[in-house]
Amino acid sequence: MERSAFGVCSYLGEKMGLASARVRMYFIYLSFVALGSPVIIYLFVAFWLNVKRYIRSKRNLLWQ
Description:
Blueprint: H1 2-5, H2 8-16, H3 20-33, H4 37-63
Helix pairs in contact: 2-3, 3-4
């Protein structure tokens, strides 16, 4: 579900050199400790990745 939904943990794992499962666990642990505030960060990054993907797809259409 993660890959088809947003891909945030996979993206962050690739950028930081960690396994995506470990990044997911960090989000879960931080959500319990910080009372859900990492969920807001997760949704922000998901939105940012979708906008970035949209811009790249439009840019590729212009150059073809």
